[in-house]
Amino acid sequence: MTDLRVSVWRGDESGDQEYFDVPRKENQTILDVVTYIQRNLDPTLSYRYACRVGMCGSCAMSVNGVARWTCRTHVDKVCDTDELELRPLDNFPVVKDLVCDMQTFFNKQKKAGGAFQGSKSRDDGLAIIKPDSKGRMAVDKAIECIGCGVCYASCDIIKWNPDYLGPAALNRAWTLVEDERDTRRVDRLRAVSGDAGCHACHTQMSCTQRCPKLLSPTHSISGLKREVTRAALKGEI
Amino acid sequence: MTHSANALKARRHGAYIAFVLHRVSGLLLSAFLPLHFLALSQALNGEAALDAFLNWADNPLVKLSEVGLVVMLSLHLGCGLRVMALEALGWTVWQKNMVAIAFGGSVVVGTIFLLQVF
Q: Looking at the complex, does the CB of residue B83 fall below 8 Å from at least one CB of chain A?
């Protein structure tokens, strides 16, 4: 098999692409490629991973322009040619090389009211949520989000409006809006209804297209838009 | 492949294309509006002025532009309906189909108009 010509981002916010030749193998993942570079060609290369099996989402980066989990992406799947372009996730500040800073991303989850606030204490026992109840069904997929940032990196609205809360934060807010135990519904709807909130979404759906867990933040955002409209008509917000 | 080529390729999916078509058709339609009002205002200068304009508008190039205009209108309508359906009706597995229907419907309406013109 021929070598892969891999172009890797080196630097922080400023930097350049550096080229490496990596032997191409069968069943090779993008994470294998990056690891090969660090272990054999340049030990100063920085990148992030943990589980290697698609559980944690920490190895996400931009592969040929598309945000992906590198541990779950086979080279054969994304390489028509022998060229590969690796960059840190779009829309995130770069710490070094392929490592990005997730702080703003998680702060936006807080801003969107992403913290659960119930009315009961630990002494009250477990709340019973019926699996087939309307609210539970509405968020059945959305609660599976692990916060990897792929949707956030794929969203052009964040490029155009850096304050935009983004698909993951709004998805989290949607799961709590539909949570019958939660007590902060109105506050949360207010938090997601500003200029940088759910109405800023232009339904480009790149988030839904790219989500490695096949979730649909677009669905969650459209649910928020409807709930915000209802609350506004009722005079709640 | 360069970074910008990769970035462009990454946006080559139905929903993004529908978004771009919606925006571009909206911009072109709003650019057309002043021309539309200019044409109508010819009536203020009397019957002869309006007739002269309408006769001029019979030339094939203007007719061809009208085809483009109708395609823009139907594209804008179709893509707008897509957004409204997604947002007002909630999620359906139809989302990608709607993009295709919006696009296909626009082409059909434009083609029918084209056939009637010539």
A: yes
